[in-house]
Structure formats: C-alpha cells, structure tokens
Please model this.
Amino acid sequence: WVGGIMAVVTLFALDLRLPGGLIEGDGTLTEARTMAFTTLVLAQLFNVFNARSDRVSAFHGLFTNRILWGAIALSVVLQVAVVQVGFLNDAFDTAPLGLGDWLICTALASLVLWADEAKKLLERLRRG
Model:
C-alpha cells in the first residue's frame, strides 16, 4: 500500500517537470529527476511516522522520540545540501529546486502519511 503510493507520487513529481507526459512540464531531465528523488526521500521520512504502529495514529505521541526527530532533521539537511549546493549538484547530478518545487515535493510526499492514516482510521472503525 505505502510502497505503491510512494511510487505514484514519485513518478508524478518526475512527470511534472518533464516536457510531454501526462502533465506538460517545462524542466530539464535533471530537474525532473531531482524532483522525483526529493519526493521519494521525503516520502520515506514521512513513512517513518507510519512505521511506528500498524493501528495507532502516527500523530499519537508524535514528539516522544527526540532521536528520531534528530535523524529526520539531519536527513532533511542532507537532502537540501545534495539539491541546493553546487558541488553536490555535480557529484549527485541534481539541480537546485525553488521554494515552490520544494513545497510540491513535500505535499506529494506527505500523501504517504495521509493515506496510511486513512487506512488506520478505517481499520479502527471497522473493528469498532
């Protein structure tokens, strides 16, 4: 379920920047790959919260694990560096993203969390 959502949102991010495809994009291949890569990384970070329980909401006890939050913060900083720092662009074949692109990637990636929350809610309602 979650893997399928990650695949869909990642491919959607890729298609947003590519010329042609389902949605007419205006970016380069490198920009499109960077959007997809960033969306996938952020989706994995959102999925960290899902993985805490198969039944309990990800928002329950959200701030109880400081080490987890530190790891997420470090991961975000490293992702921003790989995307925004020039010599890392060359090393990882990425392109800098604008604020709007970062917001799109974050919104798409967050769908992993919202979809799993909906699944957990439906399962809790079904069980009574």
Notes: The first helix runs from residue 2 to 17. The chain has a mean pLDDT of 93.
